[in-house]
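A.,

Following up on our hallway conversation. Structure tokens first:
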């Protein structure tokens, strides 16, 4: 899905930037032009970044030992 229509940035590209080490919207903006023109997509872009970071952190947590 396109998040930033001005620059043609998709949610997939944003998630890939997070996978490549971005830890904030600012970090994503250093490689992608998302939210750098009209700004209408900033909230959506931030949400994609935050959700993907949260998902990566959750998947990295070890499972609790049952006992």
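Then the amino acids I'd put at each of the 67 positions:
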């Amino acid at each position: 899905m396109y998040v930033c229509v001005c620059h043609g940035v998709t949610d997939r590209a944003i998630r890939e930037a997070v996978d490549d080490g971005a830890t904030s919207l600012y970090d994503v903006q250093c490689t992608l032009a998302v939210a750098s023109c009209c700004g209408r997509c900033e909230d959506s872009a931030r949400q994609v970044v935050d959700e993907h970071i949260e998902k990566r952190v959750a998947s990295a947590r070890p499972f609790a030992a049952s006992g």
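The mean pLDDT is 93. Curious whether your intuition agrees with the design.

B.
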